[in-house]
Amino acid sequence: MSALTLAACGGGDEESGSGGSGGAANSFSFAFENASGGQENPWQLLADQYSEETGVQIETQGLPPDSYGLSMRTQLQGGSAPDVLMFSPGAGNANAVLPMAEAGYIEELGEESAALIPEGNESLFEIDGKVYAQPTSIIPVGMVWNSSAASEAGVEVPADESAMIDACGTLAGDGKSFLAAAGSAPPNMGLMAMAISATRVYAETPDWNEQRSAGDVSFADSEGWQATLQTIVDMNEAGCFQQGAAGGGFDAITQGLTQGTSLGAFVPGAAATELANASPGLNLQVQPFPPADGGEPFLLASPNYALSINASADEGAKEAAREFLAWMAEPENAARFTELQGGVAITGPDENLSPVYEPVADLLENGDYAPLPNLAWPNPGVYDALSTGVQGLLAGQGDVQSVLESIDQAWDQ
């Protein structure tokens, strides 16, 4: 379930951090999101491994995703934050790194960290050419697809939107759905809209966010964003989602995918690995969402999480933190983290690419993907407006144009 909420899964204790409180070169504190409360967390497991190999003591602090961003901001402002912090790249999420860097709370990093940033993602990690976060892996986002259930239903991945709408009608007649949606969870609605926007907006205009920042375009006047939200309306009317989708939670996604009553869902690629590991025999893959008629496949994939160093940590803790980040950047350890998290190597697809991503391997290899759009948006309110707006559309409330206008208003705040 943790991956479904775009958060890292469980791990870590609830001890407070030691940022700026006398750490030494053989110890530091480390904060990260803790969704499930268990110990099988990639951050925790790598921290434990590092301690075993080096003897460096790491005090971990795990916090729930819904409070993590606020907690870290509060601790940084109060001078009590941990030495190493997990952040989201860019500025569009509650736990985003760039606003913290702009406020002077985050330490500038070196060339080793900069070298890990995927091409085209520099603006998510840098301010005026200075790097403030080190990415860890790439998480593709498209449709997580139950290949076995699709074969049993006689449905192939649709080549375009028209074929998808036809498949929706066929499946609905058989008591199944093309997609499972968590309509009561705004983040899932936002993720769905972004995944659809990959082909409708960013495939043709990869710099759309930059144009919006410059005031050259808007959501309300964008044909691509209009098509994105209209696709959701059309899918809803065609019965593409499970019954009661507007009130569905994340359990509707897990049950639909694992039981085969829904063929796909909008969740991060790491969730496919998590669900497959929890359900032996479940054959899940990441597929690109069908493009508009005449369009080409395109994907979202980006480094959703990164590590930063607290600028107010004492020098001993900073030194220990830099050594930890350098260790995390070593190919063997980076590969281990990618395996545990269920993503793609930060350097791109390699021989260890999970079978989950085989359908999109060519897109990843050829660079036919864009980062998650909201990472580059100026504040979390933009994504909130998109998420709640789509939530209303699924419930039959509001209209496409008013939703897009509300997103523009959030952007300009």
Automatic annotation (TrEMBL):
<dbReference type="Pfam" id="PF01547">
    <property type="entry name" value="SBP_bac_1"/>
</dbReference>
<feature type="region of interest" description="Disordered">
    <location>
        <begin position="1"/>
        <end position="23"/>
    </location>
</feature>
<protein>
    <submittedName>
        <fullName>ABC transporter substrate-binding protein</fullName>
    </submittedName>
</protein>
<dbReference type="InterPro" id="IPR050490">
    <property type="entry name" value="Bact_solute-bd_prot1"/>
</dbReference>
<dbReference type="InterPro" id="IPR006059">
    <property type="entry name" value="SBP"/>
</dbReference>
